[in-house]
Amino acid sequence: MLQAGAALGWLSTAGLGGCGSLWRPSPFPLQVLHDDDACTFKAPVLLVLLPGVYMAPQEMRDQGMVAALRKRRLAVDVVIAGAGIEYMYDGSILDRLHNDVIVPYRRSGYRRIWLAGISLGAYIALRYAQQHPGLIEGIVAIAPYLGQEPLVREVAAAGGPGPWRGATAARTDDADHSLWRWLAARPADAPALYLAHGREDRFAPAHRMLAQTLEPSRVLSVPGGHDWPPWRDLWSNWLDLGLLPRACTV
Q1: Is residue 65 packed enough to be buried (19+ CB in 10 Å), middle (13-18) or exposed (0-12)?
Q2: Strand extents, DSSP E, 107-224
Q3: Which of 26, 141, 166, 216 could form a disulfide with 86 if both were Cys (CB 3.0 to 4.6 A apart)?
Q4: What is the pLDDT of residues 161-189, one digit of tens each?
């Protein structure tokens, strides 16, 4: 279960620490939007989009993320998961993503599943892959939130994720520490990971350290901060890498 402390840390980092009054019970099951217009039958890949904090699923559609897929005629079915902040508060987000989305879609026949998240959604994607090895083929982490600033500074002061992992005792009670240890030494069965970020993003220091763990071809950057204009450009640039199938297969 994802600790509620991670959500509270996010609110503090985002400058939203006074928004506790916005909390509401998390809907059950997870609310999702579907788009399965790629093929006349089940597409070979399922793409699960994970919104950022306080971002409704419809916003990802309105900002053209699904349209960009359809423009390129990619053989991908899409689910936009309503993974809102309320699931972070009650610590249920990883269980809900697993039980309400990944497991049912795998049972229906999807074997190739990608996660693409923005900001807190990217953090959720990474944590899910860490906790459920072998279920996800790849992750697109767009402007990911990667933990509270003190931890990011600690990793930087140690010389980056690798040296930090080697010099720091494992902490099993802290989601952010656990994630950085996994990122610093991803196992062989970890999904392919692509980082996409604006160079002036407020989380850029963490992004640059994550980039140290990746091949340069798996890091995309554009000018801009933590907002939709660079995110749209990054999404288009990633799609143009040609990693998703362009033809429907029987």
Answers
A1: buried
A2: 112-118, 138-142, 192-198, 219-222
A3: 26
A4: 999 998 887 776 789 999 999 999 999 99
